[in-house]
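Margin note: ligand = beta-D-glucopyranose.
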Amino acid sequence: MKKTGLYVMAALALQLAACNNSTEKEQKDGTAQLNAKPGIGEMPFGTFEGKPVTEYTLTNASGMQVGIINYGGAISKLITPDNKGKMGDVVFGFANLEGFQQKGNPYFGGLIGRFGNRIAKAGFTLDGKKYTLAANNGVNALHGGSKGYDKVYWTIEKQAGDSSLKLTYTSPDGEEGYPGTLKMEVIYTLTSANELKIDYSATTDKATPVNLTSHAYFNLSAGADSTILGHELMMNAAQYTPVDSTLIPTGKIEAVAGGPMDFNTAKPIGRDIDKITGGYDHNWVLTRSGTGLELAAKLVHPGSGRVMEVFTTEPGLQFYSGNFLDGTLSNTKGGVKYVWHGALCLETQHFPDSPNQPSFPNTILKPGETYHHTCVYKFSTQP
Ligand code: BGC
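Resulting structure:
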């Protein structure tokens, strides 16, 4: 009896140590830890294509945590404090690998590529040659095809300093119809200032379109509100790219000018959403002063006081208001139903369909060049 008790306690202690560096107090009442031990924990998360999937948990000194898995390089959890110090998970995700692998997983937390967003009629012409992609969204290609980078195995290495993970994946020439071998490196860093930084880089051996992004679904209420309609959003963008009925840009760039697409002054997402058929699912043209890291958006959940700022080096921001969530996903974290407008994505990126839109900023990466993209999600609170 005594022995069993000891074994259970030892197993529990091991599990806690493996899972993260937090204390039992945080596990039980969700109270913020001011003196968490920064570091990287590891927990088995299943097997994919014969390889072990691990959930790596980055923890910083204020107790903020980010979980990353090999499958899709996905963000599995993101735990931040509210304005009373209570911790909560602010991203949608699944309790297990089966959840992530289910048909219809709308890219929860995944790394997206080779070309994030849509390519019209699933094809493009490059240097006089026509390339055909999988039409996995009506007649269009979406988020890299039938098996985009959100559905591949990313190798993960812990980096020195205990706050970063390096993920690598090499996409073979011809994968999902794209030309060239694309070698990628994605570094996730959790800083002591409660920032999740994502640094992407890639090289190729043939000219190819590249548009990598992250598909985290945020709801800053951490379970308190079933939708994001009450969140307040500011986007630093005077223009957007209007789309046709299949969400392909028409090629025009239009001013938001005080209309429902105007988020230059923060407003509740629910205020004008009914004026946009289907909800928000558009690319905003960021107002930029250069090519460095600049503020793209600020999201506030008034109830919890949680604030998320988005910084990027990219020219565009896709704001997607969870229009296709319908409460049917299984294996969700805590068995929660992820309903219509339950969460939103703020995807830093190049403009959709760029390979077919000569007036949009270039997305063709050539041999000898290196693709770079940095995105920072910075968390704080307000009263
Ligand atoms: C797109 C949506 C799409 C969603 C898939 C977003 O990035 O803009 O149109 O339905 O991804 O979950």
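Residues 2-19 form the longest helix (18 residues).
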